[in-house]
Amino acid sequence: MCEVALHTLGFPELQIDGRPSKLALRKAVALLVYLGEANGPVSRDVAAALLWPDADPETARARLRRTLHRINEAFGRTILEADRTSIRWSPTVRLGVHSQLFESACGREDFEGACGLYRGDFLAGFALSDCPEFEEWAFYRREALRGRLMHALERLVQSKNATGEHLAAAAFANRLAALDPYSEVYCRYLIRSLLLAGDRSAARRHYLLFEQRLRDELGVAPEFKTQALMSAEAGTADTETTRYAFGAGVHLAFQVHGSGALDIVVMPGFVSSVERLWELPACRAFLSSLMTIGRLVLFDPRGIGLSDRVGSAPSLDATVEDIDTVLQAARSRQTVLFGASQCGGACIKFAAQHPGRIAGLILFGVLAKGCWTPDHPFALRADQFDAWRERLIAGWGSAIGIETFGPSLSGNPLARAWWAGLLRSATSPGALKAVLDALRDSDVRPLLPLVSVPTLVLHRRLDRAVRIEAGRYVASHIRGARFIELEGDDHWFFAGEQEPVLDAVRGFVADLRSGHGPDTLP
């Protein structure tokens, strides 16, 4: 038995029994990494096609055989074993793959240990330009791990400040700020931690650098909340409002703002981050306006934003569980669910299954079925949906999609930087692919007649992401639901003209408070 450490975080390295081992063949290194990540046998044909995509099958298999021989010959022992159909790491090898050790530490909530393992991005500096499928696989893996790193760092900043370890919190916040230098939230994490540690000069230095970066590259000033930190005393520096609810084995990040007998629980769509939503002035203004109507509750469903990563796309039932967990944690008694875009399906299901738990339902820019069928011709065909999804993922790390979701904001450099940062911090491209696949395959049409709570459906006339006919369909199949057609082409509820949306919400909530039923809405 020998011990092999496969360092995949950063440029790949191999250690056997504690000693560095070099392998010059890049495709041999790629094969070792791919098999290590698979954590089990891999088809010979799959491995051959992955690494020699331009060769005919027989030639690719021959090259794979030679590569296996060279690997075992280079190490003087059988590192990899193969039979007629598959390849795997030898059972005589005790293998430690650092990316898997990192994920395991995150799963145990040993975030400090996990961040210590993260020396660099997955396979940083390593590429196989003639193997596009391998490169695509590595890209998805890299972004998934990077997303888990950001989540771990955010949790560490919060926990270290809570226990008084402010310098440690500042170190983790500094790593976060380097990952997204335009994030006001991450900048505040760093400044607040330094202030609490008593290092006001360092806090001011970081603030001035951030202020200059925003001015030079985005043409904007820091938010008032960020500016206000520098005038706060260290002991009274603004604390974050994010809390965690635990249910069904996961921790869910949520915030409660304002007061009042009625809660408005907002679920904004397929990506969210309860802290970063506030970074965009338009979104902040909309959420602040909602706080004048009722107590505002925001949360990230499992796998998204600051909530626990779960390694797969949350099912509709899982998101319904998450709504229930947050309502209990927030001690919500009279609740209006505000479900936008992809989150509309979960809100519809919750309303259908738990009518006694909510007072009303607001749906914005939603659709009941994810893709086209003859009896629901208001969505993209499956192949069109898949092409759109691939374009979104291919542009990961940029402001991809903002022209569809928020065309009125698409020319705003701050909005573009915010959207790109939100995508990176809220989820990974692999996780997003799974979420969008679930949306494509979703169908809550059978649930619509079961919704008995007062319902308001809002949709912009020229919505570029979801056709208005889809909103009309939803409203027409929920008994007594009112449909309001709004002007504009923005899919995001906070983009474009906000007042018509807010006026509709105010009127709906006023009718709920007066005891009017859905059929009596003006």
Description:
The protein has 522 residues and is an alpha/beta fold. It folds into three domains: 2-136, Winged helix-like DNA-binding domain superfamily/Winged helix DNA-binding domain (Arc Repressor Mutant, subunit A, Orthogonal Bundle); 164-236, Alpha Horseshoe (Serine Threonine Protein Phosphatase 5, Tetratricopeptide repeat), CATH 1.25.40.10; 250-520, Alpha/Beta hydrolase fold, catalytic domain (Rossmann fold). Helix content is 46%, strand content 14%. The chain has 19 helices and 15 strands. The strands form three sheets. The chain has an eight-stranded mixed beta sheet, with helices on both faces. A hairpin with a 2-residue loop joins strand 2 (13-16) and strand 3. Helix 2 crosses helix 3, helix 6 (132-162) runs antiparallel to helix 7 and helix 12 (316-329) packs across helix 13 (344-353). The longest helix is centred in the N-terminal third of the chain and has 31 residues, at 132-162. It is globular, with a radius of gyration of 25 Å. The model is unreliable at 234-239 and 518-522 (pLDDT under 50).
